[in-house]
Design goal:
Blueprint lengths: L10 H15 L4 H7 L13 H30 L8 H13 L2 H12 L3 H11 L1 H13 L3 H9 L4 H31 L12 H9 L3 H35 L5 H13 L1
Pfam families: BPD_transp_1 (PF00528)
Protein name: Osmoprotectant uptake system permease
Subcellular location: Cell membrane
């Protein structure tokens, strides 16, 4: 028997509170970093405020992940339809290449064409995040039990109704798992955007590497890591809620459930 989790034992609450405390209070930790890194004359990164860096980091990750979700989800949906199945090997090859192509190399190719700034970073991150979304879309749609699909067709549902009322709700948890992986990958990879002049949580890391200032590296890496953990925990909650959303969307399928039960009993 499982007991409901008490609010004060929620890891998302404490991890989020720690992340916010470090984001807004990093400047007040100067004595601590002085003690940890006594060889550093200025152990706190001050070229930009940490809230600004976090906001810029989140925006880049949000835009690139949204592009990956739209393109990857749409492409994955297309190759699971009757008319697009022949393109599935080609799609999987393309997104696999996008995943294996180093983001730094994408930046090196994109910068001469569109210049420094946010755009090359978004392109690199969107390409890098496509593979998990495409694979989870295909896996989620293929995990829908064929008897359920056949029963829905037997009830006279159109293709759109079958997709919206049956396939998408049942595929949602698997699809969200892929989106979760894509977003977490992008949070970690977005730090490289600072190499092309985009302020992110990678800025103190890169400045620290070039200036042999380990304190800067720790500050940037700590916030980027906590951001990834908080986002991962939030996605975990979203996936739990997706189960409720799937059940809530099932009333139109009530006859389907009955049909499935009848089918199971006849076996």
């Amino acid at each position: 028997m499982t007991h409901p989790r008490r609010w004060w034992s929620d890891p998302l609450l404490w991890t989020g509170a720690l992340f916010l405390a470090l984001m807004f209070g990093m400047a007040h930790l100067a004595p601590l970093f002085h003690a940890l890194f006594p060889e550093q004359e200025r152990p706190i990164y001050t070229q930009a405020s940490f809230p600004q860096l976090v906001l810029a980091h989140v925006l880049i990750v949000g835009v690139s992940s949204a592009i990956a979700v739209v393109l990857g989800g749409g492409a994955g949906l297309l190759v699971t339809r009757e008319g697009g199945r022949d393109f599935r090997p080609l799609l999987e090859t393309i997104v696999a290449i996008g995943q294996t192509f180093p983001p730094v190399a994408v930046l090196a190719v994109a910068v001469p064409l569109i210049g420094f700034g946010v755009k090359p970073a978004i392109i690199a991150l969107a390409l890098y995040g496509l593979l998990p979304v495409v694979q989870s879309t295909i896996a989620g749609l293929e995990s829908v039990p064929p008897p359920v699909v056949e029963a829905a067709r037997g009830l006279g549902l159109s293709r759109w109704q079958l997709l919206r009322q049956v396939e998408l709700p049942l595929a949602l948890p698997v699809w969200l798992a892929g989106v979760r992986t894509s977003v977490i990958i992008n949070i970690g990879t977005a730090a490289i955007a600072s190499t092309v002049g985009t302020p992110t949580l990678g800025s103190p890391i890169i400045v620290g590497l070039s200036g042999f200032n380990t304190a800067y590296i720790v500050e940037g890496a700590l916030l980027a890591g906590l951001l990834a953990v908080v986002t991962d925990l939030a996605f975990e909650r979203l996936m739990i809620r997706s189960q409720a959303w799937r059940l809530a969307s099932m009333p139109p399928n009530r006859p389907i459930t009955s049909a499935s039960s009848a089918s199971a009993q006849s076996r």
